[in-house]
Amino acid sequence: MNNDVSFMVLQLSPIKGEQQIRITGKFKVNYKSDGLSVHAGAVLKHIALVVTRTANYQSVNPFKDVVVFDDDVIATESGCSGSFNFNLFDKIAFDGSGDYYIMCSIGTVTSNIIHVRFDESS
User: Fold this and answer.
1) Residues ≥6 apart with Cβ < 8 Å to 53
2) Residue 116: beta bridge partners?
3) Exposure of 35 by Cβ count < 10 A (0-12 exposed, 13-18 middle, 19+ buried)?
4) Measuring CA to CA, which residue among 21, 11, 5 is closest to residue 90?
5) For the whole model, what pTM was predicted?
6) Who is most buried in 38, 42, 86, 110, counting CB within 10 A?
7) DSSP characters for 44-98?
8) Is the dihedral of CA 28, 31, 37, 40 positive or negative?
């Protein structure tokens, strides 16, 4: 993994018939180049989620209160990789119709920004 490029990618996973936005993500981090002082399963605890809607924004750790086991993440001596998913409205304090801009980060690794227009009436 020493020569591998670190990344984090997010995507939306629609939940049919529910008023939710499901986020799925994949990541790979190199401990040396990304400056992380945590390893293996502890990396998930350090994922930061940032959500913006109109003039409101929020930053939370979506896995802060979730039990994470070392085998939830594939770890090597030089880095780790894994995946995750969560329902957005379970993690943030605002919801409702509007444009949402969503991103995650671990250390210096940031994801793409997802834009979703959510209409709670549909």
Assistant:
1) 94, 98, 99, 100, 101
2) 100
3) exposed
4) 21
5) 0.84
6) 86
7) HHT-EEEEEETTEEEEE-TTTTS---GGGSEE-SSEEEEEEEEEGGGTSS--SSE
8) positive
Element (H, E) at 30: strand 22-30
Residue whose structure tokens are 């040396």: 32
Reading the block at residue 16, the tokens are 């049919």
In Å, how far are 10, 12, 53, 95, 122 from 26, measured between CA atoms?
7, 12, 24, 24, 29
The pair of three-digit structure tokens given for residue 114, joined into one six-digit string: 């997802």
